[in-house]
Amino acid sequence: MRPPETPGTDASKAPDAAPTVAPVAPAAASEDGERLAGALRVRRFTPAERWVHRTTALLMGVCVLTAGCLYLPQLAELVGRRELVVRLHEWSGLLLPVPVLAGLVSRAFRADLRLLNRFGPHDKVWLRSALRRDARPESRPAGKFNAGQKTYAAWIAGAVLVMVGTGLLMWFTHLAPLVWRTSATFVHDWLALTIGLVLAGHIGMALARPESRRGLRTGSVSREWAEREHPLWRP
C-alpha cells in the first residue's frame, strides 16, 4: 500500500528555482561608470586655455596686491621694501599681455578669441534680460560664451592695454613731457581702481557658479549645465 503523498512533494509542482544572476566584475562596472560619467560631461577648455587664464590671473593678482601696497599707507608700512614692491608691480604689469600672446599658438584658444569677439542677435537678448534682472535660463540665450563674458573680456583687454601704456610713461619718464606723464598717472590710478572693482565682481560671480569654476579647473562641465546655461553651444 502506497503512503499518501505529502502536499508539496511532487517535483512537477515544485516552484521554479530563483534565477541566478552572474556577478559583474568590478573592473567592468568601473569601466561602465567611467563611460557614463564621461557621457555626462563635455569638454569646455583645453589645457592651453586654462594655462592662459591661470597665468593671467596670477599676474593680475600680483599687480593688484602690489598696487595696494603702493597706494595704501597701512599696507606699505606692513610690507615695507617699497623698491621691491615697485619692481614686482612694474614687471607683472609689463608681462600681463604675454600669456595671451603665447596662447595664440593654441588653435582652440584662437577659436575662443573669435567667439569672444563676435556679438550676435542672441547676445542683445541676453544683455536686455540681464538689465531687467531676468535670471531665467530661457531668457538668456548664449553660445559657448554669454554676452556678459564677451563684454568683460573686451573691457579687461582694453583696460590692460591702457594700463601698460600709461605705466610705461610713468616708468620711463624720459619718453614723454611732464604734462603727458601727469595725465598718464591720473588715468593709471583711476583705471586701476576701476579694474579692482570689476575684478571683485568677476570673482564674486565665479564664486557663485561652481560649475563654471570646475570648467576652468578641470576643463570639462556637466552636459546638463551646458544645455541650461549655454543652449546655443554645440561642443
Describe the structure.
It is built from 11 helices and 2 strands. Helix 2 crosses helix 3 (73-79), helix 2 (47-71) runs antiparallel to helix 4 and helix 8 runs antiparallel to helix 9. It has helices at residues 26-39, 47-71, 73-79, 82-94, 98-103, 107-116, 121-131, 147-171, 178-207, 210-218, 223-229, and strands at residues 41-43, 220-222. The model is unreliable at 5-19 (pLDDT under 50). It is mainly alpha-helical and 235 residues long. The protein has 2 domains: 45-116, no CATH class; 121-235, Up-down Bundle (Fumarate Reductase Cytochrome B subunit). 67% of the residues lie in helices and 3% in strands. The protein is elongated.
Features:
Fumarate Reductase Cytochrome B subunit, elongated, 11 helices, mainly alpha, electron transfer activity, single chain, 2 domains, two-stranded antiparallel sheet, 67% helix, 235 residues
Explain the layout of strands and helices.
Layout: H1 26-39, E1 41-43, H2 47-71, H3 73-79, H4 82-94, H5 98-103, H6 107-116, H7 121-131, H8 147-171, H9 178-207, H10 210-218, E2 220-222, H11 223-229
Antiparallel strand pairs: 1-2
Helix pairs in contact: 2-3, 2-4, 8-9
Transmembrane segments: 51-73, 93-109, 152-170, 190-208
GO molecular function, one term: electron transfer activity
Keywords: Cell membrane, Membrane, Transmembrane, Transmembrane helix
**Broad shape:** elongated
Quickly give the CATH architecture of the largest domain. Up-down Bundle
What's the helix-strand series?
Answer: HEHHHHHHHHHEH
- Class by alpha and beta content: mainly alpha
CATH names the topology of the largest domain as Fumarate Reductase Cytochrome B subunit
CATH class group of the largest domain:
Mainly Alpha
Binned, the helix content reads 55-70%
Mean pLDDT: 86
- Number of distinct helices: 11
Number of domains: 2
Stretches where pLDDT is under 50 for at least 5 consecutive residues are 5-19
The total of beta strands comes to: 2
Task: Please compute the radius of gyration using only Cα atoms.
Answer: 30 Å
